[in-house]
Amino acid sequence: QVQLVESGGGLVQPGGSLTLSCAASAMPFKFYAMGWYRQAPGKQRDLVAVITSGGSTNYADSVKGRFTISKNSAENTIYLQMNSLKPEDTAIYYCNLHSTVSGRDHWGQGTQVTVSS
Predict the structure, then answer these.
(1) What distance in Å separates the CA atoms of residue 104 and residue 97, rounded to the nearest whole number?
(2) Which of 1, 40, 45, 110 could form a disulfide with 91 if both were Cys (CB 3.0 to 4.6 A apart)?
(3) From CA 89, how far away is CA 72, in angstroms rounded?
(4) pLDDT tens across 14-60, in order?
(5) CA dihedral over 18, 93, 86, 64, signed as positive or negative
(6) Which residues contact 47 (CB under 8 A, 6 or more apart)?
């Protein structure tokens, strides 16, 4: 069973920055998409950003130009650099590893990001 361990969440003021990390205990998939989803209270879980095994990236419109996803394949780790944070970015951020061949998903436990003055 693959474990995803997230870190880097916390409290930040509007306009501030945070970097989230997600480390996978193993990488059982050759072809995958790994990324971040977020869920605010009372709302559904939505895609924030994803990066594929080939290095392609995709972002939610609401974070384009502010967030950057990157990966260190050697360490099975992805990062989410979040700049110009807004109160509406407040949510629990979940790491996801998805096999683009089998469709299998693994999820992290989530890390809280709170943007507030």
Answers:
(1) 8
(2) 40
(3) 25
(4) 999 999 999 999 888 888 999 999 999 999 999 999 999 999 999 99
(5) positive
(6) 35, 36, 37, 58, 60
